[in-house]
Specification:
314 residues, alpha/beta, five-stranded parallel sheet, 15 helices
Length: 314
């Protein structure tokens, strides 16, 4: 736990004023989930992903998505080697611990879909051969919402459902930007980042969080939220069973980050916006009246939060 807190602190020393986003990035790592970072250009999405990879001491790959990127550029390709007169398999950047899918919405749907198997099953199939991806494996994808109408391809529902969180960095405050000016004028804090975790430690932590208690009270509250999303009048497609499990696992990881061995209803309530918003598909009428963020707030407010004391009873 001490090394985990050190790792979080080191990332916060590079990306100022985004402590909540950094915490959720580590929650996603522990919960074996993936993260979609959506924010305007220049807010530090790529630097955040690189700092995160550096501090966990994992292998790191970056793919700059553009319309001409092919699926084989991600997963790999079998090519003929004239020196040995044989076909050889060249594995793509997907075989890594941290994969930065930069500007993922600029790639074609065919290329975007090359990540689906890896994100769900931790493997990739190249020319009929299955390559296992070593754990931990996390995809950190970035996209710029302001480019949504200029040669981009919105992620399909099936792929959005594979992201545990959708996070928005947003702009820093004036005081945070002044700190950025003062610090980056002299040096780049990223250069001083050192690993605080090991791959073996992360695997152990991922196993530990599965033992965090999720009581009947918490489970019932979680299910009420999920079913409320499916029954909302402005929602065409609510939270899937995959999303339900993602919320539970995120709750366990979040509780662990708070140094607790049990999940509280408040943990679930805190995480719901990050888990639900990108998964909801609104009806045509609903999308005219409201945004997904507003509907998530309605779902939270309409679902009574049980007392936390009850959440501690196994």
């Amino acid at each position: 736990m001490e090394n985990l807190l050190k790792a979080r602190e080191k990332v916060n020393n590079v990306i100022y004023g985004k402590e909540e986003v950094v915490d959720l990035l580590f929650v996603a790592l522990l919960a074996q989930g993936h993260v979609l970072l959506e924010s305007v250009p220049g807010t530090g999405k790529t630097k955040l992903a690189k700092s995160f990879a550096k501090v966990i001491n994992g292998t790191f790959s970056r793919v700059q998505f553009t319309p001409d990127v092919l699926p084989s550029d991600i997963t790999g390709i079998r090519f003929f080697n004239p020196k040995v007169q044989e076909f050889e398999l060249r594995i793509g950047p997907i075989a890594t611990n941290v994969l930065l899918a930069d500007e993922i919405n600029r790639a074609t749907p065919k290329t975007q879909s090359s990540l689906l198997e890896a994100m769900e099953e931790y493997q990739s199939t190249v020319d009929g051969e299955t390559i296992k991806i070593s754990l931990p494996f996390i995809v950190i994808a970035t996209q710029n919402p302001v480019e949504s109408n200029y040669g981009t391809f919105p992620l399909p529902e099936a792929q959005l459902d594979r992201f545990l969180f959708k996070l928005d960095l947003g702009y820093p405050s004036i005081s945070e930007e002044k700190r950025i000016l003062n610090t980056y004028r002299r040096t780049d804090p990223y250069d001083a980042v050192e690993a605080s975790l090991s791959i073996d430690t992360i695997r152990e932590l991922q196993d530990e969080i599965k033992l965090i208690t999720v009581s009947e009270v918490v489970a019932d509250y979680l299910l009420e939220l999920v079913h409320a999303s499916r029954e909302h009048s402005d929602v065409e497609l609510g939270i899937s069973p995959r999303g339900m499990l993602a919320l539970m696992r995120a709750g366990q990881a979040y509780a662990y980050m708070k140094d607790r061995d049990y999940v509280t209803p408040q943990d679930i309530k805190t995480l719901v916006p990050y888990v639900f918003e990108h998964r909801l598909i609104l009806s045509m009428e609903g999308s005219i009246k409201k945004t997904a963020k507003e509907i998530v707030k309605e779902i939270i407010h309409a679902t009574a939060v049980p007392v936390e004391e009850g959440a501690m009873v196994e």
